[in-house]
Specification:
The structure is a homodimer. Chain A is α/β, with parallel strands linked by helices. Chain A has helices at about 10-15, 15-30, 55-70, 85, 90-105, 120-130, 150-165, 180-185, 195-205, 225-235, 255, 275, 280-285, 295-310, and strands at about 30-35, 80, 110-115, 145, 170-175, 185-190, 190, 215-220, 240-245, 265-270. An eight-stranded parallel barrel of chain A has the order 1-2-3-4-5-8-9-10, surrounded by eight helices. In chain A, strands 6-7 form a two-stranded antiparallel sheet.
Chain lengths: ~300, ~300
């Protein structure tokens, strides 16, 4: 089933997500992903004017996220759009999400859609075709996060569509939350479950290695488990790691240092609230305040870049 | 974070998803869920007129699904809306999905949104608040499918919102696809992983038992593994089972018989393609043809009800 006209077979010829990401990280000299997680109560007050209907909120979300993209486009290689907050607002939220993805790409940012999707067969393929591959898809993201609970055959359609379109996939391997241990750390024949998922993802990544040495199929590994992060970096030498859990969830620059290779590649570290709502953090509230929230975004991004560099 | 005005605290007083489902199954004397999985190439030709833009397809999807709901509203207790096919069409598809959910509920059907969502903390809560609880949410589904890879603390927000609003959650336990075995069947200390998920879900279900003896937190268990289906029925006495894999995927009426209790409750069996595209099946093509596809939907639904009854 190929619903979307493949205008750009050329796209797959020109693009390789693993390489695109490496180039963007090297161009920006920073491995940061800014998480676009709009939350109504935390938006600057001037964006919350005009009531709080779903439509008003959706417009505020796209305006807010687009301004964040404008600020970070010259500092960060990528943004991660959290689908849940847009989905919460119904169809109006989804229209806002489409605008946010388009705007970020127009600013030259790579867009990772954090949707943690998964399904089987042609249903998984529908998700992949809808979300992945820039102009070739309805939503236009460069990469999508995917959950592995349904197993290897559920990942295949995502991988196939991503490779066909020069896009990427990040498979959940070891998540940053405490409860992630419940299933991910179960040990069978001496190996934890996340290790098996990692092995499968590394196999997919190694089959798609680009010029920079990394494949287009990556893994999500939380900053809150630094030991496993180091272990998985070693076990997955061809796999880009998308590392959540920095900042608000407790992960530090020292915790994520082991995620990078000697060139400073191989990992991108996400920060959502710590950057986009920096205006409310004690470090920035006095300097900028709510009215100059964009400058707080810029300062927090620069500070995170420096923290990562010194560690 | 409570984004949606809770107009109906009364809703949670009046509604209990486990009981609502039991009543609907008993009223219809059938445990069938009709899967609304629209696929462009398989739609009857007269619905595919007017081009194939995303907007045209989205309108065709809502028209098709709404007509299916009209036909099955007097035969089946519930429909399962497959989010992926609507998401594939971008924002236009999402608007169509909202219309399909609303229309099915207006026809008296319970609506299970098959989105296999999962995330942590307030992000998981955003999904739950957006999708669950009829008029209290932007989308208005009665229940949502959820993936457990992120562990128990990722399920809690879905469970909390569902219970607060009288809605339901179906957690993936043992899926119908062959690759599901990769992780779900891994054995730790003598127990497969799906067994641990099942134990957790049964605990949640048993804490929310209604008058009919079942909780509002259910489990997805595929028809394609009849032995595990029987085993899980016994291990999860308070848990509604949502059983996919019937028909097109190979599950038979005999395979799913063990999913039911003595009263014929405790399980609902999904059929998507086998019902909604019945007009193309050899059994119905000659009798109805493409032009009378709605009658083929009706006949296939009645035939499935009879198959389940005789087994």
């Amino acid at each position: 089933m190929k619903l979307v006209v493949k205008a750009g077979k050329s796209n797959s010829m020109k693009h390789h997500f693993g390489d695109d990401l490496a180039q963007a990280v090297e161009r920006m000299k920073s491995p940061i992903v800014v998480g676009l997680d709009p939350r109504w109560e935390q938006l600057p007050a001037n964006l919350r004017e005009g009531g709080d209907s779903l439509e008003v909120r959706a417009r505020a979300y796209s305006r807010f996220c687009n301004e964040v993209s404008d600020v970070v486009a010259s500092l960060a290689p990528a943004v991660k759009v959290q689908a849940a907050f847009f989905e919460e607002l119904g169809p109006a939220g989804m229209s806002a999400m489409a605008k946010v993805i388009t705007h970020a790409r127009e600013r030259g940012l790579l867009v990772i859609l954090d949707g943690k999707r998964n399904d089987i067969g042609s249903t998984a393929e529908a998700y992949a075709r809808g979300y992945l591959g820039g102009e070739e898809s309805a939503w236009g993201a460069d990469a999508l996060t995917v959950s592995p609970y349904l197993g290897d055959d559920s990942l295949t359609p995502f991988v196939d569509v991503a490779l066909e379109r020069g896009a990427g996939v990040f498979v959940l391997v070891k998540t940053s939350n405490p409860g992630g241990r419940m299933l991910q750390d179960l040990v069978t024949d001496g190996e934890p479950m996340y290790g098996r998922v990692a092995q499968h993802v590394e196999q997919l990544a190694s089959q798609t290695v680009g010029k920079a040495g990394y494949g287009s199929i990556g893994a999500v590994v939380g900053a809150t488990y630094p030991q496993q992060l180091a272990e998985l970096r070693a076990a997955m030498p061809h796999t880009w790691l998308l590392v959540p859990g920095y900042g608000s969830q407790g992960g530090t620059a020292a915790d994520v240092a082991a995620a990078f290779d000697a060139r400073g590649l191989g990992a991108i570290v996400n920060n959502s609230r710590g950057i986009i709502f920096a205006y409310a953090r004690p470090e920035y509230a006095g300097r900028f305040g709510e009215a100059r929230w964009q400058e707080a975004v810029e300062a927090a991004t620069l500070d995170m870049i420096n923290e990562l560099r010194s560690a």
